[in-house]
Amino acid sequence: MIASKARIKFNRRLSKQLGYRIPDGAFHGAVLDALATRIVFDLFDHSTREQIVSFHKTFLDCSCREHPFCGCPEQKFAKEIIELRESGLNHHEISAYLLDLFGIEIFPADVLSFLEDTVHLLEAIEEIAGLEGETVLVDKTQEHIAAIEGKKRT
Fold this sequence. Notes:
By secondary structure, the chain is mainly α.
């Protein structure tokens, strides 16, 4: 999954504040737990605080019982990438946007690979929906495929 390839830029500062080393994966359980419950915002510079707040609001805001280990942050991250692509950003721009807004480092090639996998999955859904006569679902998958591929639907 794409979330496993994401790294947090401010990992060292977060580890220093916590007093122990945490993994650098942005969606690793220890990182999510620290960001959800254990950080003191005042110990970070303004830009890092803004990134942490944006990360928290975008990916950690859910009411699941198992929060933050419920899977919602990873799903929201994948959705964010798809929505950024559908809004017209390419994989390089998506990578830069995630770094700037959330402090998430991810290689553009990993974003591109994820988007290609997403298109293949949507094509499979489209095929099955077509076999089942689900025309609304076929239309929606075609729209998403076209948006991800950067094409206008004809």
